[in-house]
Structure formats: structure tokens, C-alpha cells
Write a structure and sequence with these properties.
By secondary structure, the protein is α+β, with helices and mostly antiparallel strands. It has 2 domains: 3-102, no CATH class; 121-227, Winged helix-like DNA-binding domain superfamily/Winged helix DNA-binding domain (Arc Repressor Mutant, subunit A), CATH 1.10.10.10. Helix content is 35%, strand content 27%. It has helices at residues 3-19, 28-32, 38-50, 99-102, 148-158, 167-174, 178-195, 224-227, and strands at 23-27, 54-67, 70-77, 90-97, 121-125, 130-133, 139-142, 204-207, 211-214, 218-222. A 4-stranded antiparallel beta sheet has the order 1-4-2-3.
């Protein structure tokens, strides 16, 4: 399997796991941030469709609806809305997947047995709330499931791959004050950098006038018990 197919299949799977739905809405910018244009995405979606991993797909405009801390995509129109209407709408790929078949593309390797992951840092969040890289003994950030750092990070894990979300929206979803959220994210990044050996990479990235997102160069595989909490 080529690198593009592997990476795009994983992006789709991340959104599936985050939303729990077979019909996922993935912002166009989520692919662009990984270096994939419309032509790249369309080719891979065609491959996945031929193999049964994708039932159907199309590009459209919609917005995010947040329910119980989980962001889901709601389609508004297949054409760009007027600026005076649906101002929060953004362009996305609405993809209806077959999870069992998609899993066959996630984690597979190419003929040489290796996949170039574009410098991705892979982390694991186990059922005990320990976030680690490679092995716990070497790089581990223990997160207590009843404390705020865990709750903040879990929100971004459940919604990873979405791109930047406004500080106000994230704070509202977590029922927190905006300044409190900023302070908490700063603490999380400082601790994660040291305990996980992330160097200059921030676990949660910030962009002025855009908000926060989970670093697209970091993937977090969370235990099922964590995702259902």
C-alpha cells in the first residue's frame, strides 16, 4: 500500500473513532494540513470505494454540532453558503465508511514492510490514563482521570484531526472559563514536552485568532475504555 492511501485511511479512521459514526465529516483543511490536495484525496477515496472501505462520499459545506463533548459534522449544503448565511459553515468530505473493511487499510505496510509516516509522533493513552511514547518506563505522562488535564486532553483526542477550534467553543464544551483553559493547556504542554520527550513539538497547538488543535504531527491511540468515558 502506498503512503498516501495509508495516511488518508488513518485520517478517516481517526474521525470515525472520535465521532463513533460510520458517516463522518472531515474538514478539507484536515487533509491540507497533512499536505494532501483534492486530487490526492479523491484518488485514495476511489481506491477505498473500490475495495468496499468507503460506501460513498462527496464534498459539501456544513458546521460542527457538539453533543456531550463530542463534535459531529452536520451538512448544510453541497455549495458554498452565502456569507450572510451559515457563517460557521466550512467545507468537508462527507464519507460513509464500512469500518471493518477500513481497518484493513489502517496499520498496513507497503511491499518493503515500512511506511513513511511523515515524522508522526505516536502516543498511547491506556485505560489507566497513562499517556506514553514507546514504553512507559522511558516516556510517560500519568493523567488522573478525575482531574482537568485529562478532561482537556480527552476532548482534543475525541475530536483530533478537526483542525483549529476556537478557544471559546472548547471552553464552552468543557464548561470552563476561557482564561482557565489557556492556563491549563499551557501546563499540559510544558509537562508533556518534558515527560514525553516531544522537544519543540507542542501536544496542543495554538494559533492566534484560530484557537487550539491537537498537533497534527502527533497521533494518540486511546484505549476503548478511555474513549467511552
Amino acid at each position: 500500500m502506498d503512503t498516501n492511501t495509508f495516511t488518508i485511511a488513518n485520517i478517516i479512521n481517526e474521525h470515525h473513532l472520535a465521532s463513533g459514526d460510520d458517516l463522518v465529516g472531515i474538514p478539507v483543511k484536515s487533509f491540507e494540513q497533512r499536505g494532501f490536495g483534492h486530487h490526492d484525496v479523491r484518488i485514495v477515496l476511489s481506491i477505498l470505494t473500490k475495495n468496499g472501505a468507503v460506501k460513498k462520499y462527496h464534498r459539501c459545506w456544513g458546521h460542527t454540532a457538539i453533543e456531550k463533548g463530542i463534535a459531529r459534522y452536520e451538512e448544510v449544503s453541497q455549495t458554498k453558503p452565502k456569507t450572510t448565511e451559515n457563517v460557521e459553515a466550512y467545507e468537508a468530505y462527507h464519507i460513509d465508511i464500512e469500518p471493518k473493511i477500513l481497518k484493513q487499510f489502517v496499520g498496513q505496510t507497503n511491499v518493503a514492510g515500512k511506511v513513511k509516516k511523515d515524522g508522526l509522533i505516536e502516543l498511547v493513552l491506556d485505560k489507566d490514563g497513562d499517556l506514553y511514547k514507546e514504553t512507559k518506563e522511558k516516556f510517560c505522562y500519568p493523567l488522573h482521570k478525575d482531574q482537568e488535564p485529562f478532561k482537556v486532553l480527552l476532548y482534543f483526542i475525541k475530536n483530533q484531526g478537526r483542525g483549529y477550534e476556537s478557544t471559546r467553543d472548547v471552553a464552552f464544551s468543557l464548561n470552563k472559563d476561557v482564561q482557565y483553559l489557556r492556563t491549563e493547556i499551557g501546563k499540559i504542554n510544558r509537562i508533556a514536552a518534558g515527560r514525553l520527550g516531544l522537544g519543540k513539538n507542542k501536544l496542543i497547538e495554538a494559533k492566534q485568532n484560530s484557537g487550539y488543535r491537537l498537533n497534527p504531527h502527533i497521533t494518540i491511540k486511546a484505549a476503548k475504555e478511555i474513549l467511552s468515558s
